[in-house]
Amino acid sequence: MLSTFQYPKFEYVRPPELASQGEGHYPVTVVGAGPVGLTAAIDLAQQGQQVLLLDNDDTVSIGSRGVCYAKRALEVLDRLECGEEMVQKGVSWNVGRTFFRNEEVFSFNLCPEPDHHRPGMINLQQYYLEDYLVKRARQLPNLEIRFRNNVIAVAPGEDRASLRVETPDGAYTLTTDWLVVADGARSPIRHMLGLDVEGKIFMDRFLIADVVMKADFPTERWFWFDPPFHPNQSVLLHRQADNVWRIDFQLGWNVDPEEEKKPEHVIPRIKAMLGEEREFELEWVSVYTFQCRRMNRFNHGRVLFVGDAAHQVSPFGARGANSGIQDADNLVWKLKLVIDGKAPARLLDSYTDERGFAADENLMNSTRSTDFITPKSAVSKTFRNAVLDLAEHYPFARALVNSGRLSVPSVLAESSLNTPDADDFAGNMVPGAPMDDAPIETAGGQTWLLQALGNRFRLLYAVQDAATLDAATVAALRELAGGAIAVEPIVVAERGVAPGALKTLIDTKGRIRERYDLHPGTTYLVRPDQHVAARWRELEPTKVRAAVARATCNA
Amino acid sequence: MPLNTQVNLHEPGKRYFRAFSPGDDFYEALIATHRDLTDEQSAMVNAKLILLLANHIGDISVLREAMKIARDGVA
Lengths: 555, 75
Fold this sequence. Notes:
The structure holds 2 protein chains of 2 kinds.
Chain A: H1 16-20, E1 24-31, H2 35-46, E2 51-54, E3 68-70, H3 71-79, H4 83-89, E4 91-93, E5 95-100, E6 103-109, E7 121-123, H5 126-138, E8 143-146, E9 150-156, E10 161-167, E11 170-181, H6 188-192, E12 197-212, E13 221-225, E14 234-239, E15 244-250, H7 257-260, H8 263-274, E16 281-295, E17 299-300, E18 303-305, E19 311-312, H9 321-339, H10 349-373, H11 378-391, H12 395-400, E20 439-442, E21 445-448, E22 457-465, H13 471-480, E23 487-495, E24 503-506, H14 511-516, E25 523-526, E26 532-536, H15 541-551
Helix pairs in contact in A: 2-5, 2-9, 3-4, 3-9, 9-10
Chain B: H1 21-33, H2 39-57, H3 60-71
């Protein structure tokens, strides 16, 4: 098969424990250098934390695997300073079309609003994503990566965990205050600890064929129910980087996966779809099944599970890697506050609460998509086909067509970290909401709201003319930066520069005002993971401090 | 009032952050209503469901319009 990508081979280095025969001790160890483990390790290191990252392999993902990276994941990756490279290399798209037999019945736009920095989705082979993350990780001197270091035993303790690690030079033991487990869907560490994961396996098989070809199909997600070229099943077509196209054929349960992977079976399926004349070469072929399941808790004392190790969903909706990246985004700032003694360990319970809520939403949406795409009974299939039939002419039925509800972030409206609204607000930026982006201008030039947020608590304070801020407000805002948990004040204005060296953002297109329902005096407290923690119609520093305490379990 | 074929599903008191959620909530409940039934039992459930909804709608001209659309293209 053809290869458009040169797999890097990362160097194995003999660990110091094997040289000195001693036991190393580390504040945080992350296991698994996939998209989620790398995200967690980089985020922690960026926060100034010493991090050890262990991986059992010495290269990136074999095969394209996860190819859809959603807007919210890109915003997190932007915070890690590697989003731009991915967006440049990836294929940006917003529109998805759904076909039933020969007719288009439904289309959606993931990002129907203008003035957002990132597209609804990019398609990028997982090996590129991991390659870029490894490059970023290597820029961070306080992040040590050990390739071909395989964890073979874990002994969790009250205030640390002990790991037995196997390398080409033999095994060694290390201890760690905190263990972040990102070792994937089969999670060997989850098994070693005997922790349950509950859910169900779906009785269906799907064939992935990555095909290299020159084609001028639009950069959209195309999904077919029961197409003439693959009757009674579904097919998905997606463009990736380097003229690689992902084609996903539903096969049903009663096929032999080893047979179906053979080129003599794959190529006729693709020719039936693309026509005999189209020239293409196979790059990667895989047959998969999937499970929908999650752990009951994601935090177990000193052991914290993220990504597929904690929860698995069907691939319809791109909710795997995207939710895992958001797990890391949610966990890391909390863990850092706990490590630094600025928040109690129970703040980590809110990681399970918030990301468990997100996992349930992802499981619900991906299970609903799966049930629509692969109906489990005759009556379910009749309803499905009735919806598709009606969808051509009737808008209500179009809304019911479910070919995958693509990954959008959860609104954590029920989180105990939120301070409930006491004032009236319009719009969706409720406490717990992931923040909407908007174009802004700062002293440094044109940029985006989300580029100015994240990594620590911030306070957005709205005024019309920043230059007119009175001395008392300036003093109150500046004082917030001095607490045990610093809150950086940012003035959002239509014009002007705030006095007292306060950072000022100009809402050039009025989108922040529109999306956050800003009036002069409106104040938003924003978490390090760019979620709204609290909001008020006027600035009251005591309320801000109380909301910070609540958002960090210090109340 | 003519038959409404625009998007119309919602649940009182529930706030939706995603446009697809109310329709998906309904569809899941509909399919769940049929769980573990035989085809014959499902047909009976569907018949009862139509009768209940028809009575709720009340306006027979609306029902005639729906019945016509439902039959179009089937036979």
